[in-house]
Amino acid sequence: MLLTRILTAIVGIPFMFLCVFFGGTMFYLMMFVISFFCVYEYLDILKKYRPYIKISLLMAVLFFLFLHFCSEIHINEVSFSAIVIAIVFFVKEVLAENPKSSIERIAVSFLGAFFIPLCLIHMVYLRNLYGGMEIIFFVFIVVWVLDTAAYAFGSMFGKRKLAKHISPKKTMEGAVAGLAFGILTAIICRAIFMSSILSMCDSIILGFVISIFGQFSDLAESLIKRDGDIKDSGKMIPGHGGFFDRFDSYIFAAPAVYYVLKLLK
Question: Who is most buried in 38, 55, 193, 218, counting CB within 10 A?
Fold first, then answer.
């Protein structure tokens, strides 16, 4: 298992680095693939609700493609997309012969088709900003460090559970450590390669935002997996589980960073 994890990292990390470095279509396609498989794994996790997997995946693909042609999120485009996706699922249920649990199917299918692509497209929007390459590396590094710190400190010193009914291994001590190391990492990243993009105050704010929303995203994914009664979202990344497991921290963190940056600038 360890060898598989290492080999996957040896191949995957340089590939992601190149996608971030070159940006444009290459980075968009990477996020498109990540979004697609996150939606697929989410629907598979909640298959007990019998969501419309094929239709939801198709709507997710079309929605992600549609958002790609928008330079940034506008309420009219999002509202239009949400209405269209909802209508598709309601039409499917109206034409079906068994209305029992129809709202569950609609809700689960809609959340996969709309919510996950909408959140992850913000990684593309971040890459398209001024200093976008540095910002993406910044987000990746801060998330990786805070996750590692939260796990390590939680394992060694954790006593008080953060959300015991959702993720029993996560602790308050680990969360605080993740927050502290996330902010510290943001400050260090700013000093090393982002001094022309972020002020010291900006880096502290963004470190705080990434730490809070990144850890909350992880809990949100744990909630979904708990409902589906599974441990890992999938096995598509050898030695690392599923796409949803590896990129769950960005579900809420990416939009949060994007809009905070818009406010700061």
Answer: 38
